[in-house]
Amino acid sequence: DAGVIQSPRHEVTEMGQEVTLRCKPISGHNSLFWYRQTMMRGLELLIYFNNNVPIDDSGMPEDRFSAKMPNASFSTLKIQPSEPRDSAVYFCASSLSWAYNEQFFGPGTRLTVL
Amino acid sequence: SQQGEEDPQALSIQEGENATMNCSYKTSINNLQWYRQNSGRGLVHLILIRSNEREKHSGRLRVTLDTSKKSSSLLITASRAADTASYFCATDRTGNQFYFGTGTSLTVIP
Question: What's the whole-number mean pLDDT along residues B31-35?
Fold first, then answer.
């Protein structure tokens, strides 16, 4: 199994541009999580899905952030418009089922907004 | 909001020594997990301990949980240079939504 796949691995964009981050969870996993990691705030849960349905998006910082999971093998996190304070590493993780399971993390996308 | 808070923030030891890091949390939990993050990589799950367990072992790792004190510790015995990484505890209240702490940065000097 290739593990959780994220793309791109690095993204540099200018303020105001739209950014789309992509994630392919491990096949057979029913839950998917988006996290953001910064030095100042650590690792923050943004949103998570169970069976492709968003369960809790209370961690999404602003309306500029949106996430979708159109099917069990693909999810996107979109930032529109992007701002310099969005610069961070964004991780996607998946787990086998709803409760009490370890999460498998992707390698992350390092986003820099100039 | 974050629940787990690791202590110390940074730890430096000689290879072969034991490393102990602690995690404190604020509310009751179902489970607590420990993860490792190597520089530039995603987090890797190390061990899960349930709220009704007090101690768990996995290889050179030993985790304890004290629910009365709302704290957990991770002990790495006979450390190796490859153990150099950041270590995070993650606590959950709902069973699938984990809150990560700020991490302990461990450096093992060869």
Answer: 91
Question: Residue A28 is encoded by which pair of tokens?
Answer: 């057979």
Distance of CA B33 to the CA centre of its chain: 7
Nearest chain A CA: its distance from B32 CA (Å): 9
- From residue B58, alpha-carbon distances to A48, B48, B49, B62, B76 in Å are 29, 10, 11, 6, 10
- B30–A105 C-beta distance less than 8 A: no
Q: Which amino acid is at A64?
A: R
- A66 within 8 A of A59, measured Cβ to Cβ: no
Chain A contacts of B96, Cβ < 8 Å?
Answer: 31, 48, 50, 95, 98-101
Q: Cβ B30–A4 below 8 Å, yes or no?
A: no
Cβ <8 Å between B102 and A48: no
A53-112 pLDDT, tens digit each: 998 888 898 899 999 999 999 999 999 999 999 999 999 999 987 556 788 999 999 999
**Residue B38 touches partner A, C-beta closer than 8 Å:** no
pLDDT tens per residue, range A6-24: 999 999 999 999 999 999 9
pLDDT at A101: 77
- Give the span between the Cα atoms of A5 and B54, in whole angstroms: 35
